[in-house]
Queue: 4 jobs
Job 1
Amino acid sequence: MEIKQLQALVTVAEVGSITKAAALLHLVQPAVTRQIRALEDELGVDLFERTRQGMRATPAGVAMVERARRALTELERARAELRPRADHVTGIVTVGLLESVLDVVAAPFTAAVTRRHPGIELRLLTAYSGHLQQWLDAGDVDLSLLYNMRSTSSVHARPLLHEAMWAVAPPDAGLRTDEPVDLAALARHPIVMPVAGHGLRVIIDQACARATVSLDVAVETNSMRLQKQLVIAGYGWTILPSAGVADDVARGILSAAPVSAPTMSRLVVLGRQRSGRIPPAVETVAHELVEVIHSVVASGAWPSAELIEGGPTRDGSVVREGARIRTPVYDPVDA
């Protein structure tokens, strides 16, 4: 099994065509066909079905493509890590970011890594916590922000902060971030909800069960962006993490208030695989991410967040100014 065969396999699977794959690989079409056939002969299975629509991976092909892509990624990371660069940590680091924290974390985090560590190639993937956890388990990301997750045998979860959930409404509702809204009052309005099974939906459903409150669900969606758009359009109120709406509230697009009676919050953690050697580049990026999060909370840009004791900054101290800090309290939810 050769690297060029794995490259051909992955490329054909991605584009669905021998001809297109050959163009991308700068090879002639027969060469790509030979590489695929040689791989099939070695494995003793068909990796593709030849259809009128193009090349479609068989179940065996799908499994092989997944592993081949991971192997090629590891080789690429090794080359980047070992490439000599004077006075620089080098390597490729893939980081998972929750969709709900992009507005407050993505830009300062990217700026910190690119400015301080030019030898690191940063790759950012965004998704919901459940998907990010799957990618972390599979090795598709090196580290990831997750929420309401304990450490497992395969993943170490470092608690970073507790974040309040906010009731979110159109501007004319007059919600204020310094005046909490009871869940019972929120229930008097139609609600735009995350779909059943979504991590945020689990938090909301658990709070409703504790308060014996039933919400009038108008619409369900798996998109935080769509939740906000539907609220703006007048289809109801919604409930979201503070980081996901802070910018919209500041710009007057939405109004929001912390949910009370009962309060709702989530625990944001930094997840990282336990197994194998942790490259210096991954360690470096993890440190930068934690430092940026502490700085963002301290500045007030991440409202209703409470830092958890023990998070280091560059000088080894814990950021305290402008943010409350408390010791970890676990309330795990399967996200």
Note: Confidence is low (pLDDT under 50) at residues 311-335.
Job 2
Amino acid sequence: MFQLGKTIVSEDIIQKDFVCNLSACKGACCIDGDAGAPLEKAEAQILEDIYPKVKPFLRQIGIDAIEAQGAFITTANGELETPLIGGADCAYVTFDKKGTALCGIEEAYNQGAIDWKKPVSCHLYPIRIKEYSEFSAVNYDKWEICDDACVLGKELQVPVYKFVKQALIRKFGEDWYADLEKVAEKLQ
């Protein structure tokens, strides 16, 4: 672990390799697990605001889940998340013709319907951020469904932090990322 400004960063994001391999995993991170995508407070409001524009990009079952639960949910612990369909799929997930899970929010963004890509937690994956009162913990989230992504990352020699560069810049800014690159050079 090392500190960058108000973040404590796991060296795993520099030392581990990762490149999403959707042809292998089929987007399992959007449909597996027992929780929705973590949301920041401002993102919950964004989801409410953009839902009418995202709705045409969603499956009916996702629309039904959102309209029953809301554009986001608040967990028993007070955390904000995207709603789920039957405790599994993210309500915003869609599927391509090959059965690969895709993000309806991101598709609306790609089609120019909205100007917000998707929740930053999704954009950052496999990095997870845990907010504390004095700092943010930046960790690599190892999940077996991403084993193929680790293999592809190793083949292509792409460390986690480079794979999620744009998301890290979105979350922490250009200067923070430049400092991260300097640390990575020293560690390698």
Note: The mean pLDDT is 93.
Job 3
Amino acid sequence: MQYIPCSLLVFITTFCAPLRAQNVAHSQYFGDGYQLVWADEFNKDGSPNPENWTYEQGFVRNEELQWYQPENAFCKNGSLVIEARKTEKPNPDYVPESKNWRKNRKSIHYTSACLITKGLKSWQYGRFEMRAKIDISKGLWPAFWTLGVEGAWPANGEIDIMEYYRGKILANIASTARDGKTKWFSQTKAVDELGGKAWAKKFHIWRMDWDEQSISLFMDNVLLNKTSCSDLDNDDRKGIHPFKQKHYILLDLAIGGMNGGDPKGTKFPNRFEIDYVRVYQK
């Protein structure tokens, strides 16, 4: 057997593995007519690439418990980590007697991060893919989703490629109903059916195939939701079609709020770990 110096083995491990991953990313969907147009493999330790990501900050939506801040997101060992932490600090936006839920909370009890490509990267149509591992503890609400760049929600359109809360995986698409409220096309899958905690210890692949005709959402190559774009137009007929425009990506780990459940028995810090996010187009 030929002797290979340790220094060469370190080089191969450190540099060649990411190159192999990049080659796989570029080639794996050639047979379907797709080419890779953008990806973040999160291979460099430290802060996420500022050319790809900015951040939501503060209390943002759904009366969720977490205060979003950039420092809860970091890259380590080839993954993006979004870390939810339990804390106790004053809410800088606090206003006594305010009726606004963002301002009437005197304290911040949890922090997390929401990374967005808004203003940096956006796409119309394609195959969007994420490989990630989620924790299914009570009160956690991780998501990989998109929003349209033009218009106010929900008229701009929302696609939840991966969403989890209260024991179920969700694959959702939303636009505006005739009365101006949200129109949802939603499918769910109980995590217990998938294997529960053993399933959650592993990485899984979530994917969206989106073209002019339909939006299809998959988990580990199993179709969860396919909806015709003709059904997804805003029923109030105001403005643009929500899915005939570019969308940007969001990655977040929310806590509690209107859907997330009660996190009191959940251990913190807690993590949503993303191996990669990729976008392909034909």
Note: The CA atoms of residues 157 and 175 lie 5 Å apart.
Job 4
Amino acid sequence: MSILFVTGTSTDVGKTIVTAALAATARAAGKSVAVCKPAQTGVAPGEPGDLATIERLSGVTRTVELARYPDPLAPDTAARRCGRPLLTLAETAAAVDALAAVDLTLVEGAGGLLVRMGEFTLLDLAQKLDAPVLVVAAAGLGTLNHSELTTRTLAAAGVRCAGLVIGSWPDRPDLASECNRADLPAVTGVDLVGMVPSGVGAWSADRFAAAAPTWFDATWAADYPLR
């Protein structure tokens, strides 16, 4: 089993849609895929969360959510507010390991790299499982700073960065976005390996699955294994 973590430079940068696109790309290549979302916040019991979006767009059926909290806050804060125990690093790592029968397991974090999903961060989990982390970045102004902070933190922790993906590339990119596309790999030292068009989360599953492999660099995708 290969494991790939998906984090963001912040919240609302497109992690869930990127995760769905990765899953769809791998499935198009005949790979078996599972997705783990350790902690979901801001969603009430019985309501569809991020995994429902991933399932709908990618066709993945093996998904795991370990904890759900109603308040739209960092998972550890949301857990304390509703009186739930915090997720532990050991139980979360065990849940990811339990998906070993598939070719690729995608683990989507919450917010950015150092947001606490319980008693741990996504960085802690990636260190424990010795797995690479893909960073989803915004297109516009501010993304260079956020992206470099994230990639430097990964490097300092000895965790391999699998690349950068722009999570929502606008139909009409402004000057900052166009410049950032070139500057992101220059300032971070990490390859830009994908760009997901804005609005694709509203597409039909068939259209999404057909287009998803075109959003990632083919040579990079073959290594994870997505192709």
Note: The chain has one domain: 2-224.
